[in-house]
Predict the 3D structure of the following.
Amino acid sequence: MFAYAFISLINFFIALSISVFLLLKNIKHDLQRRLAYTNIAIAVWSFSYWQWQISHHYSDALFWTRILTIGSVFIASTFLLWTLTFVNEIKRFRFILVLCYITTALFTIFSATPLMVETVEKTFSFPFWPKPGLLYNIFLPIHFIGFMLFGFIRLWSNLLHSTGTDRQRLLIVIVGMGVGFLGGLTNFPLWYNVPIYPWGNFFIIIYPITLLYAIVRYRFLDIRVALHTVTIKILKITILLLLFIIFVFLYSSIFKQEIYFTGYLLFALLAATVITFTDELIDSVLQRLSGKIFFEKGISTFDIYRKTTELVATSFSLDRIYAVINDFVQTVMQTSYVTFLFSDTKKINHSSVTMKGFQNFDSTVNLDLLLQYINQKPSFFILEEVKRRQFLEKTLVKDNMLKLIMQEMEKMQAEVLIPLPEKNGSFNVLVLGKKNSGNAYNIQDINMLDSLRFQLTTTLENILLYEKEKQFSSRLKGEVEKATSKLRSAYEQLKTIDKMKDYIIDISSHELRTPATIIKSYLWLVLNGKKGRITKIQSSALDRAYQANERLIQLISDMLDVSKIEAKRLELNIASFDIFDLIQKVAEDLQFKVKEEKIFLKIEKPHNTDYQISADREKTEEVFTNLLTNAIKYTKQGGVTVSIEEDKFYIIVHVKDTGVGIQPEDLPKLFTKFYRTEQALVEIPTAGGTGLGLFITKSLIQMMGGTIWVESKVNEGSVFSFKLPKKIDTNSKKEVLGENA
Amino acid sequence: MKLKNILIVEDEPYILDIYQELLTSEGIAPLLAKNGQEAYELLARGKKVDLILLDIMMPRLSGIELLRKIKKNSKIAPQKVILLTNLPDREIIDQCYELGALGMIMKSDINPDQLIEKINEILEKKGLM
């Protein structure tokens, strides 16, 4: 029975190694710690089994079978605890768990008494085999089979309701654990003298091997591809073991003796031959078989990866690409979180780093430092890998920068940093959190992420460029709005200043007029004998002063007009009136001047009686007065003739004089500001004038929708003509409308 | 209508002097006020006048302010007011018209003897004579 002892010893070592490994690796992780408990129980059980099998004395065998029973008690209870943890049902089945703890305590205590293992006696070819006590009959169906079966039922029930990777994880647990459990059950028939040998012990090894392989090579159950490979290995080992059992059975039956050295040698030869010639065939068959079991119902990692690459390539927003990457990492690797770090420039500083997708963020994390480090060494940074390297290369331990980076990563619970450098020098990093399972990222994860990285970098570059453009355009909009509001306020200010300017002009004009009025009035009073008699010489002198003052008043008035015209603030009061009435009135007013100059003033009788125009009466009077005054002023012989005519739309007034006339070169400049003809200055220096009259006249006429022009011959005289729009009467309006219609 | 009581409201003493002299020579003894406040007090005391010749730019109470106060005070009957000013601010003048001023005479534009003529012209235009 050497084989049973041997397989127990192997089981022991494997279970012990697994439990030590699990405890050292992550003692805080509930699932792993509880799995370690199960393995410790298996180790105890296997060790006792081994000791019992090699016992030569009754008392030794009895002792070890009792320790073995304690192991069985704990295998069942720790398995239940782990299972419920795995499917997250601790709370739901707390009652059963407590019951299990009680029975565990009870059966452990009674294991020291014959109530559990009554005795050991020869059973078939085993020299010592335990016989059940009274309590054992309760322990076996209720505690061992009962609780373990309950655990499997929970796993199975969860399997039915799960999808995707969860389903695959549960499946491998059920297969691995189930094989071990069924294997373990083959130990019990002999207790009741049923002739079934404990050949299942060979299968118990499958369970720890499953775990061992998964943990060491593939970081435990988080990758479907790993699952596939593991399954194949398990099946291969199972085939070998079956071969071995068949071999032992045949060998025993043919040679009627136990298998010794020759037998093992023969088996080894047989096994080697079988493996050499059938490995590939078995592999492909098994791959197809396991592939059907594991992959058909779920989506393969490769499919997810391919889909993700496609989605990344077609993403157009940061939110979208984040969602895609998040989905991928969550589905395939079960990462606690994923986040992007962005930096605008190569010179990374605090303000330039932005984040996407990081919640519950520890604000003390120095993101710039992480970015800077990865910028300098743009390769994957895997915390676990760095720790391992530190263990091997002591110089790395002294690397302070590395220490800082590791500290920051621990702070933000990050496990992997993936550089995503842009062509334009910007630098982005994809940060992955720790895996929910508490395990490290494996080479397949990293390979997948690495392949994904290129597509990700390109798309991200485009998206960020687009976002920047968007930001720029919104900033531009803001700037334009700001500038507009500045302009608006400047405009308001200018308007206020303009108003102030108007006010100042009005006030100055008022202030200038007041003394001019006083001068004018007193001069008039004196000139008109109201202050006593004056001589002719005095009168002539005072008259000059009076005329000069008049010129001053005119200048004030003109300058005010000009300033208003130029500011386009001259208000017109357009109304209809008869211009011929106006002409007659002004002519009457100026009659005294005509008499003074000893010339004639003739108003030609019009053909019609009605010359209604549409204009500002006051301004029209100003215009005509100015023209008539000028004509009288510059005419020394002959006289002034005013005539009136009309066309379809205008009334035209001509003021013709027989005065000095205007030089042809002066004509174009006549209506400009402050322009005075030399002739006027030379020939009639006392005529006065401000040089603004014709400018104002022209401006007013234009504002009222008319035009002014002049024809002149030196020494023959001038004709100033202007036309203003006729009053639009309802009849002619209708006519116009009628024509248009 | 013969104007008997004319109130001249004018802050400039020389101008006041000129118009007083002129109106006196026409047989009208005008009432004089050196600013809007004086005029207001006069009217508030119940003084009856046929016409007010009102300057606009004055200390203490300007012409436009006087018009406002007269309008507000229900005890003062509506007055015939002609603006006699050198202020060319059309906006203010329009406001004065809204407050009841009948017309406006630009002081610098007239010789003293034209004053009565201008007054009559305005009153005639308004149909008040």
